[in-house]
Design a protein that fits this description.
Blueprint (H helix, E strand, L loop, with lengths): L10 E3 L2 E3 L6 E5 L7 H14 L3 E5 L5 H11 L4 E4 L4 H9 L4 E3 L8 H13 L4 E6 L13 H17 L5 E6 L3 H14 L4 E3 L7 H17 L5 E2 L7 H14 L7 E5 L12 H23 L3 E6 L5 H4 L5 E4 L6 E5 L2 E6 L4 H18 L2
The structure holds iron/sulfur cluster (SF4).
Length: about 375
């Protein structure tokens, strides 16, 4: 399925482009205090290795600025500084070589301070992300938290920058309410074409966060909205990146090199086998052996691990290779739904790997 993306203005952040027709990027945020410079750098490295395209760091006071500078010098990844209210922090962050800042101009106060930030941001080509969420809404102007209020608040901030001739803007509108967040993003997109950073705030942890984030990000992306995504999850931010990658893979926006299809199992499944264990084993082995090659080839291999041969090959007929169980212990190896041969239980992983190797080699030759 092809998604018609809302046309947005491309914004450059170091070597990353957000918006336009650039790939939808993944971002996350460190949760190590910035004064722990080596810990921050190690976390950025883990995030980038997991697939983050941009990493944000909270800059909470002026003491943090030398640490920000140190981190910026030491790592290659595009970095964004998260700043609240304090214009001096914004100026200091730009001075430290940061690639993007997140600050709401309407919360800074004096116009001359905003003007100064804009001047320096322009000089250094540093984009500004406006981040509106339920908590940051001006309660006097918008006493009720609604999608309209959120979109209008984002527009208020945007206009301040536009009036100063600044358009290198990314906008996020987030709440912990799925429907309100979706609606607010749609309302804003009707008014402006700045790239949208999408996600939920306070999405929680574990499966609840995965479900809620997938719903809101998935819905917006399928509607053509969203240029960069963040899954906000309590805990290790590397998990955020893994989930974000899975969301983009599920939507076939940025397919991962390996996709495993596995059935839920039922009474037809061979009771002698742990299908989940086999599927996980196959996935790890494929990623370990073929991930780099598949990334180079820009291909995804789809591998099915199914519980029975009655429905397995049919349900997974689009898989490049798959295995279907049988209570007799004679497993079926198939490709694109067609039988290749029968296997014993202990041959499943090695046979899939062998077949995958043949398939991937043929892709390599036909390049
Ligand atoms: S593929 Fe077979 S074992 Fe798996 S859920 Fe379907 S019918 Fe059951």
């Amino acid at each position: 399925m092809s998604i018609k993306r809302h046309t947005t203005r491309p914004v450059k952040i170091r070597d990353l482009i957000i918006g336009g027709d650039s790939p939808i990027s993944i971002q996350s945020m460190t949760n190590v205090p910035l004064e722990n410079v080596s810990g921050t750098m190690a976390q950025i490295e883990r995030l980038v290795e997991a697939g983050a395209d941009l990493v944000r760091l909270a800059v909470i006071n002026e003491d943090a600025l030398p640490h920000l500078r140190e981190v910026r010098k030491a790592v290659d990844a595009p970095l964004s500084a998260d700043i609240h209210f304090n214009y001096k922090l914004a100026l200091g962050a730009i001075e430290s070589g940061i690639d993007k800042i997140r600050i709401n101009p309407g919360n800074i106060g004096k116009l001359e301070h905003i003007r100064e930030i804009v001047r320096r941001a322009k000089e250094r080509s540093v984009p500004i992300r406006i981040g509106v969420n339920g908590g940051s809404l001006d309660k006097k102007k918008y006493p009720a938290l609604t999608a309209e209020a959120l979109a209008q608040s984002a527009l208020d901030h945007v206009r301040i920058l536009e009036d100063l001739g600044f358009e290198d803007i990314v906008v996020s509108i987030k709440t912990s309410d799925i429907q309100m967040t979706i609606e607010a993003n749609k309302l804003f997109a009707n008014e402006r074409n700045y790239p949208l950073h999408i996600g939920l705030t306070e999405a929680g942890y574990g499966i609840s966060c995965v479900v809620q984030s997938s719903v809101v990000i998935g819905h917006l992306l399928l509607s053509g909205l969203g240029d960069t995504i963040r899954v906000s999850m309590t805990g290790d931010p590397v998990e955020e990146v893994r989930i974000a990658k899975k969301i983009l893979d599920a939507l076939e926006i940025r397919p991962l090199p390996v996709r495993i299809i596995a059935c839920p199992t039922c009474g037809r499944t061979d009771p002698e086998i742990d299908l989940e264990k086999i599927a996980r084993e196959v996935e790890s082995a494929l990623i370990r052996e073929f991930s780099d090659t598949l990334v180079k080839l820009r291909r995804q291999i789809v591998v099915a691990v199914m519980g029975c041969e009655v429905n397995g090959p049919g349900e997974a007929s689009h898989a490049d290779v798959g295995v279907a169980g049988a209570r007799s212990g004679n497993y079926l190896l198939f490709a694109k739904g067609k039988k290749i041969k029968t296997l014993r239980r202990d041959e499943i992983v090695s046979s899939i790997m062998q077949e995958a190797c043949t398939i991937i080699s043929s892709w390599n030759y036909s390049r």
